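anyone seen this seq b4? input:
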Amino acid sequence: MKIGFIIFLPLCHMIGVIHAQEIRINPKISIAEITTIKNESMKGILYAVNDSSVALYTENTAVDKNVLQRDSLPLRIYSYREIQKIKVRKRSALAEGALIGAGVGLVLGVPTDLAAQSITLSTEEVSFSTFFTITFGLIGTAVGAIIGSSSKKFKINGDENFFRASKDGLMKYSFKRNF
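predicted toks r here
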């Protein structure tokens, strides 16, 4: 038993070290809405952020990652001087929030329905009611969707200092890290 553990533990450690050194590129797709100083608004995928500008892909916000990895894309480039504010959210955040909320609602609803069934005072057999399961599932879905739809806001006001302060936060949401 001890010999198996002594062999197993270093093997797991070596696999972990090898796995940690792999380069895994899984870029995130985030939807950004840029409001300009002229009060114009443009929505698209936050493609890249550099020291003085932001690039948006505005053709199709439901585009696949493979299309975004091409070299020649029609991007709209906004200088920090043009930007009033930027609102960003992860593209899949709404669906993920709704699914998590529905799961939590169902996990709470089923035991509540089972408890309600066991409390019945009659001696006859009562069938399983799904009232709390459905109610908690719907409430959880709605709350999760609301939480998932929230966005991060960056105030730029055409100011270089505000843009530089927001740059690292925007980079977390951008598809490309270098531009």
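The chain has two domains: 26-92+151-173, 94-146. Residues 77 and 149 are 25 Å apart (CA to CA). kinda curious what u guys think
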